[in-house]
Amino acid sequence: MSLFSDKLKGLTSDIFSKKEKSVLGIDISSSTIKVVQLGRSKGKAVLETYGELALGPYAGVDAGRATSLPTQKLGEAVADLIREAKGTATACGVAMPLSASLINVIEMPDVGEDKLKSMVPIEVRKYIPVAISEVVLDWRVVPRILADTARPDAAADEKNRKAEVLTVAVHKDTLTRYHEVMKVANLVPSFYEIEVFSTIRASLEEDLSPTMIMGLGAGSTKVYIVDRKVLRESHIINRGSQEITLAISRAMGVTEVRAEELKRTYGVVKQGTDTDVAEIASLVLDSIFTESRHIMESYQKKHSRNIGKVLLTGGGIMLPGIVERAKTVFQTDVSIADPFRKVEAPAFLDNVLKSVGPDFDVAIGVALRRLEEEA
Ligand SMILES: Nc1ncnc2c1ncn2[C@@H]1O[C@H](COP(=O)(O)OP(=O)(O)OP(=O)(O)O)[C@@H](O)[C@H]1O
Ligand SMILES: [Mg+2]
Predict the structure, then answer these.
(1) What is the pLDDT of residues 227-253, one digit of tens each?
(2) Which member of 82, 116, 313, 360 has the lowest number of beta carbons within 10 Å of its beta carbon?
(3) Looking at the domain assignment, is residue 244 inside a domain?
(4) Which of 28, 30, 31 gets mutated to test ligand 1 (max ligand atoms within 8 A of its CB)?
(5) Which strands form 135-141's sheet, in the order they lie side by side?
């Protein structure tokens, strides 16, 4: 079982050559499911269809709210979405939430991959709160050049050289549940991948410099630090865009549906005397940004590397005024991820895709990996 693929070939879209087969990338998130179908034409990944479905109504809550659905219902929702989006491919991959995984970068003696095979599962026990037999474990040695930069002293001393190993663990029960969900939807995925790796594949450009990727979802915000294209840290902040809606609803005494509308209209932009929404939204957003800034500063300090870029992704980044606010807080280059840039799409969809793009980073990343497997 491979929980991630560090082959970031999907970073460039002109890699595909052989069969003209289509694949589905499926992102099962807390408030939505997203699906993307990619095909291949003249060596490029081509968008065939995509769709999104709010899970709220399946759980009896408002659209946009995070949910936790039973297996059968979630499977039915996946099937409904693929039908509505007119997805036809049977080849697929599925992204699992970061919260379902434990990811660590651990330091090991540099004894070569063969020896590490028996050592890593023992060492990783320190970082995993359940028995190792209960999880599926996947790991990769972090490329040397990065380890050397991170630990200049180790590079100097050949004997004490350490290897850094990225480990990913998922509880077997979680995998079984996802398998059941997909069975209800009549699909057999060729892999399950943690969403962080899909996001990186879909959003990161050909850039080696340290980047912080922030994924603003409904129920949580995910913060990833990627250095030389390798994941170094991943964090979950248990506040997402839904928190902004709830704060507006509470403070202004309006329904959540109205609060969601107000959030999407005003965001954190003050308009004339109409400043209430912006002020409430800013309070929540700033608390998320401040926590992310601490993560950023702590990485910079620990590794003596400057993070020169913040990449925003996830549905929550459609909040009006968010980029300006992020620039003020992070005092660095801030941009919005554009995952559809990695695929060719009909020209008339260009504008639509630019605005919905960040929402689909995970689904696109999964589909790109699945397409690589087909190549
Ligand atoms: N135009 C918009 N303006 C502001 N916020 C928006 C807009 N569109 C969507 N959102 C917010 O984005 C959030 C959904 O984002 P996303 O689809 O990334 O979440 P998710 O993938 O379901 O969550 P997670 O990955 O955390 O489980 C919702 O809280 C929604 O209110
Ligand atoms: Mg998501």
Answers:
(1) 988 899 999 999 999 999 999 999 999
(2) 116
(3) yes
(4) 31
(5) 101-109, 162-171, 135-141
